[in-house]
Amino acid sequence: MRIARFSIDGNVAFGAVEGGSAPGEEGALVLDIIKGIPYADFELSGTKVPLSKVRLLPPVLPNKVVGIGRNYAEHAAELGNEVPDVPVAFFKPTTSVIGSGDAIEYPSFSQELHHEAELAVVIGRMCREVPRERVKDVILGYTCANDVTARDVQKREKQWARAKGFDTACPLGPWVETDLDPADVTIQCTVNGEQRQLGRTSDMIRSVEDLVVHITEAMTLLPGDVILTGTPAGVGPLNVGDEVAVTIEGIGTLTNKVIKRG
Fold this sequence. Notes:
Elements: E1 2-8, E2 11-18, E3 30-35, E4 43-50, E5 55-56, E6 65-69, H1 73-78, E7 88-92, E8 97-98, E9 103-106, E10 113-115, E11 117-123, E12 139-146, E13 149-150, H2 151-156, H3 161-165, E14 170-177, E15 186-191, E16 194-200, H4 208-216, E17 226-228, E18 236-238, E19 243-248, E20 252-260
Parallel strand pairs: 6-17, 8-14, 9-20
Antiparallel strand pairs: 1-2, 1-5, 1-14, 2-3, 3-4, 6-7, 10-13, 10-18, 11-12, 11-17, 12-14, 15-16, 15-19, 19-20
Organism: Streptomyces lavendofoliae
InterPro entries: Fumarylacetoacetase-like_C (IPR011234), Fumarylacetoacetase_C_sf (IPR036663), Rv2993c-like_N (IPR018833)
Pfam families: FAA_hydrolase, Rv2993c-like_N
């Protein structure tokens, strides 16, 4: 099931996305409004609205976004880094989260903004110290993410908080896909229609299971929290006016335009 969060007539709701998902078929999609929230038992209301009549919002509003760095060997190499012995974790604040169609604001303190296409894991229930065999039980589904990074700031500051946590630095969407095997799907990023990144999740150094186990050893994850699983090689610059799209096989496409901040 594809679960979207959206706004219509000033109201915010969740809905199940129905219809074709191939490129060009978006106009035929409809939303069956959900009674309740997707983190608990819910029913479909049977009230349907065309996707074209709503504004898509970030599919979740996470309490926290936990990012994982250097989880693809070729990406680590392209930036001159070695593969770390343990996962490199960082946070992106809730205020960095935007949805598909929202604008990425180029931060005034950076001169080198980069895209990073990633598979995002959406947590469905409160959990900590999750054993490997229970990981699937705590996951609601998966969505597309762009770990937008001020690369020059990342290089000169020891902490990545500003480089990866500025407002609009975490596009998520367009919806959550609950029925996906994340082990081997394609991740693609285009800028103005030109392919920049193309990889597969099977190239991740640490799997989704590895990451959930590792993170929940240290902290409790709450429903709606998000884990960013790392980006494949091919990261590159974004400029004001660019349109960046992240497409993940089995999920859909997250699209955002870059604008000047302020």
